[in-house]
Structure formats: structure tokens, C-alpha cells
Write a structure and sequence with these properties.
8 helices; Aminopeptidase; alpha+beta; about 260 residues
């Protein structure tokens, strides 16, 4: 893909995907100047347009206000940044206010129709859509094992998303021998040309067998059937090479800056 086409994709990404879909459950979305923030998730979340349009002391005050808002609630908060954000010193000012950068990820975009190949799975592995609470808890337990930390909050998060917008959150599991070995979900947002590829974690002993690729293919099939032209993902360093080989294009990087009480 030519640089001009990648720039066009990034522009559409900026225009359509900088807000936050109402998460459902007890969580709510609020505005503070140019920012959108979520209250009531497992930790706070802040995002904004590419150009915040505030600078210097005014930007410092905006950052401090978010930090202090979540501090009063006793909650951590993630400020989602992208490499092409403005002002250019945003991340420096976040760091000065006590926000700490976590691992960067690559934002990749692909055409859903191009990615909607057959979902080829190893023998004995099945793929199905789930909505039941028991299945979502099994996913959270699998994610906790993969990441070596407590992801029990994920079951409640997915439950709220499904209850709030059942047709726009598609959760898939891969199973073998009655065990959840991988999970991923596809998130639609009304009025945009993108569906989000989220999750995609697989137990270590099942990696390298094509399950991740099958998850991408099945979700692309669903997006294409809904006539949503693009899928996008914030990909880890492990996942980005696989997705690039599948045909997704890197348009920017994203780095969460996190403040914790």
C-alpha cells in the first residue's frame, strides 16, 4: 500500500475512532473539554482527538484535572496516546504529571473482505460464539493464566458490553477437550467503517498452530457480512508481524500512559 493510502487510512481512523462507545453496565462516558473519559471500568480511560488544541500551561491543567479526578475516586487511569498526536509534547507533559508509559502497540488496519478467509483450525479445536456468564468467566480465567495476573474483571466487562449492545460485541472462544485455549472479540461501533479486533490471547502450549489466524479470519468474515469495510487492532510486538503477513497495514503506534494512586 502506498504511503498516501496509509495516510488516508490514518485520517479516517482519526476521524472515526477517537471517541469511546458507551460501555454499558455501571460505566459511563464523560466529556472534559477536548477529552473523552470513561468512569466505572476496571480503571479509568481517557482519549481525545489527534490535536487537543491546548498547549503549555493549559495542557498541563487539563492533564492535572484528569489525574486528580481519578485520584479522588482512588482509581488508576489510562491516557491513550498515538505517535502522531498533537501537541508533540503531550507525552512529555503526561510523564511530568506522573503518568508512566506502558508497552507501545502498533495500530493496524485491513480490509475485512480481504481477510475473510476460511478459519482453519487444528484437529480437535472448535470455534464458537459465546454470551453466557460462565463462558465469559472461563475466558477471564484463561486470560489470567496467559498474562500471569488477575483478569477476573474481564468477565464483568464483557458481560456489560454484551448486555449494552448484544449485536455489536461478538465474543469467540477456541476450545479443545472442553478447555478454553484462546479467546477474542469483535466490536462494532455505529456509524463507522471499522470493527475492532480485540483479545486474541492463546494459551502458550497452543500457540503457533494457526489459532490466532483463524480467530482473525472468522472475525473478518463477520465484519464483511455486516458490510463493515475495515477491521483494526492495537497489536502487541508478538501479534503485529502475524497481522502484517495477513495483509493489515500499520498506520501509527499507540502507547498507554497510566497514572496509579
Amino acid at each position: 500500500m502506498k504511503d498516501s493510502q496509509i495516510n488516508e487510512l490514518r485520517d479516517v481512523y482519526d476521524a472515526q475512532l477517537r471517541g469511546v462507545t458507551a460501555p454499558g453496565g455501571s460505566a459511563r462516558v464523560e466529556k472534559d473539554g477536548p477529552l473523552t473519559r470513561v468512569v466505572g471500568w476496571h480503571r479509568g480511560f481517557v482519549t481525545g482527538p489527534r490535536d487537543l488544541g491546548v498547549y503549555g500551561a493549559e495542557l498541563d491543567a487539563l492533564i492535572t484535572r484528569q489525574r486528580d479526578f481519578y485520584a479522588a475516586r482512588g482509581e488508576a487511569v489510562e491516557w491513550k496516546t498515538r505517535a502522531h498526536d498533537l501537541p508533540a509534547d503531550l507525552t512529555d507533559r503526561l510523564a511530568a504529571a506522573g503518568f508512566v508509559a506502558e508497552d507501545s502497540e502498533t495500530v493496524l488496519i485491513g480490509r475485512s473482505a480481504d481477510l475473510a478467509a476460511a478459519a482453519l483450525l487444528p484437529d480437535g479445536v472448535t470455534l464458537r460464539r459465546v454470551t453466557a456468564g460462565a463462558d465469559l468467566q472461563r475466558i477471564a480465567a484463561m486470560e489470567s493464566k496467559v498474562w500471569g495476573e488477575d483478569w477476573s474483571w474481564l468477565a464483568d466487562d464483557l458481560t456489560a458490553r454484551i448486555e449494552n449492545s448484544p449485536e455489536d460485541t461478538v465474543v469467540l472462544v477456541a476450545e479443545a477437550g472442553g478447555q478454553v485455549i484462546s479467546a477474542a472479540w469483535l466490536v462494532f461501533k455505529g456509524g463507522v467503517d471499522f470493527a475492532g479486533l480485540w483479545g486474541g490471547s492463546t494459551l502458550e502450549e497452543w500457540r503457533g498452530k494457526g489459532i490466532y489466524r483463524a480467530m482473525v479470519a472468522r472475525r473478518a468474515q463477520i465484519a464483511a457480512a455486516r458490510e463493515v469495510p475495515y477491521v483494526y487492532v492495537d497489536a502487541s510486538a508478538d501479534s503485529a508481524p502475524i497481522l502484517t503477513r495477513l495483509g493489515l497495514e500499520a498506520v501509527t503506534t499507540t502507547t498507554p500512559y497510566v497514572w496509579s494512586p
